[in-house]
Amino acid sequence: MTARGGFGAANLPYGVDSSGRVVVAHGDEVIDLASVPGLDVEPAVWTSGSLNAFMALGPDAWAHTRLRLQEVVADLPAPARRPRSATRLRLAWEVGDYTDFYACREHAEAMGRMLRPAEEPLPPAWLHLPIGYHGRAGTVVVSGSPVPRPNGLLPGAEGPIFGASARLDAEVELGFVVGTTVPRGQSVAARDADRYVFGVVLVNDWSARDIQSFEYRPLGPFLGKSFATSVSPWVVPLAALEPWRVDGPVQDPKPAEYLQVDEPRGLDVRLSLAVNGSVLSNLSSAGLYWSMAQQLAHLTVNGAGVRAGDLFASGTISGPEPGTEGSLMEKYAGQRWLADGDAVTITGWCGDRERGPWLSLGQVDGAVVSHGGGAE
């Protein structure tokens, strides 16, 4: 494999180590940014415990820092470096609000056919706007965090019963970290979205399908989704993904003006879903119907604004062919679910990992553990 294992100078993803220092990955090492000269950033930003202070400096500062790092990273002295394998990472930023979308047509249609077989698979609004729901920022956790099996009310033959979810699922998604605040009362046009998104992470939006199926009408997901959302520890700068921009699917009907964006609007991120080390699916984000820019534009069109640190995600990404499903529900048609002890890994990359060039988004891991609590 080339490009220093996917973490070459064309990538330089940001993370935060267990001591609260901001680092970037370069090859098999991490670079302590507080030790890098000439970044024109207050040193306290790099020891603040999260990326929020750096993101709040805005896109010009992000671009200058990235350019400077690319110039000097190969020649930095030993005190600025340490092995990546020996570095423990925490959640890289303080999550403000979290919104999850439903942007993949293949997934939306597959779920519609299973959940509402007597109806059209797509909800009436789906082709006109990116449908989404607000999640819980407090349950966004970094890769490696255990995932307790959630309790809730489940459908039963004689009415709802309380218990632990028996239909626990994983969902393969991309997440987008907002870096620039948009004040309440203002909005972001889809064509301007790139200036507001700092970087990209991998997301596993864990789902309790039995809890979800009982509660989701009429207001959508609630407890079936809010117990855990895992994200990768490395935040890949959006600028690093520019070589992998692709045209999105044709949108018919034509979106409203605020959702219109020039091509290429999509990102070709390759993704794999594995359980206990066995790869179940390989897929790509290239076919997402609603792009990152369109999601952010819709999120803010009503004047809600966003803050540095907000997270929004694509929703489950699936493809049209067998072996490209982004969830167990799709792959096994509701016949197989996650058991206690199962370890789920989502891996992401761009390009050709064998011949190059390529770039790694790392991976997001999580293992299911039994829920120790309950209700009186």
Describe the structure.
The protein has 376 residues and is α+β, with helices and mostly antiparallel strands. Strand 20 and strand 21 (278-284) form a beta hairpin. The relative contact order is 0.19. The termini are far apart. The chain is globular, with a radius of gyration of 20 Å. Strands 6, 7, 8, 13, 14, 16, 17 and 22 form an eight-stranded mixed beta sheet that branches. It folds into two domains: 4-90, Fumarylacetoacetase, N-terminal domain (SH3 type barrels); 98-369, Fumarylacetoacetase-like, C-terminal domain (Fumarylacetoacetate hydrolase, domain 2), CATH 3.90.850.10. It is built from six helices and 24 strands. 13% of the residues lie in helices and 27% in strands. The protein has helices spanning 52-55, 59-72, 105-115, 209-215, 292-300, 328-332, and strands at 14-17, 22-26, 29-32, 81-83, 89-90, 98-101, 132-134, 140-142, 147-148, 151-154, 161-164, 168-169, 172-178, 197-204, 207-208, 229-231, 236-237, 245-246, 266-267, 270-275, 278-284, 311-313, 343-351, 358-369.
